[in-house]
Specification:
2 domains; about 0% strand; rod-shaped; Polyamine-modulated factor 1; centromere; about 85% helix; cell cycle; mitosis; PMF1/Nnf1
């Protein structure tokens, strides 16, 4: 406060009270400017403005959420299980779907191979028949 400032410089204040007030005003002004610059420098160095904006966005999104946010239970096994089980179940269903697709693809390829073998057997019989006929 100005009163505390004047008490610190009591002798000077008694001689020139107006000058003391002017010095105090300049001191406060420069101090505020210096603090604002320091805060801006810290914000710029840490990219805090972007981080604060993303934090504001997260807070706004959380306001619309009806269920409470996840909190750790303090038991690491349960925490990891609650986080991993849904992911692993989803991944398992994906893998099962891919497996069925591959099994179907393999079935079609096996049918094609069998059909090719049958055709080869027919051609071998035809060759044998023509060979006997030629002899």
């Amino acid at each position: 406060s100005y009163q505390r400032f004047a008490n610190c410089y009591r002798g000077f204040y008694k001689l020139q009270p107006e000058m003391t007030r002017s010095i105090y005003d300049q001191f406060i002004s420069q101090l505020q400017t210096s603090i604002k610059e320091e805060i801006q420098e810290v914000k710029d160095e840490g990219n805090l403005e972007v981080l604060f904006n993303s934090l504001d966005k997260i807070v706004e999104e959380a306001k619309n959420q009806e269920e409470p946010a996840w909190r750790p239970s303090g038991i690491p096994e349960e925490d990891i299980r609650s986080a991993m089980v849904p992911y692993l179940l989803k991944h398992r269903s994906y893998l099962q779907k891919v497996l069925k697709e591959k099994e179907e693809e393999n079935r079609k390829v096996a049918e094609s191979v069998l059909a090719g073998r049958d055709r080869i057997a027919e051609l071998q019989q035809l060759i044998q028949a023509r060979k006997h006929a030629w002899q």
